[in-house]
């Protein structure tokens, strides 16, 4: 009888320990889910403010040549990909934000990264509000800006030497454009 009692107590203690560990694991998974959800809407932290834009040469969908030297002094830049769900979610807000900018299309560059046919359909609403470049992964603009994740929204402007640098990696599409920086 003492062995049976000891076995029941041991199994009960083991079950209680298992329950505590399972609850701790659930709590930890919820914390990670919250972090991942917050990360999706987070600024493009991979590019720090002050990051210089490297030299590049490309052509927009309208056939206009585009180089580092031809970038506007204050430019909103978006790197989007049709294969990423957050990009699909942000596209309407980005188009609305770009449409309301005082400089109009001249102050907006949209880089759509993906397979050309899929990217062209995704880029269609961007054409009236931005200069659009479609490129494959690791294309000229992605390399020049150092972008590896999507969506990436940036503001660029000249540094003290007149070279374009990232001036903001936290573009808030919900802020009124008069206050956008």
From TrEMBL:
This is TlpA family protein disulfide reductase. InterPro entries: Thioredoxin-like_sf (IPR036249), Thioredoxin_domain (IPR013766). Residues 47-181 form the Thioredoxin domain. It comes from Streptomyces nigrescens. SUPFAM superfamilies: Thioredoxin-like. Transmembrane segments: none annotated. It comes from the Bacteria.
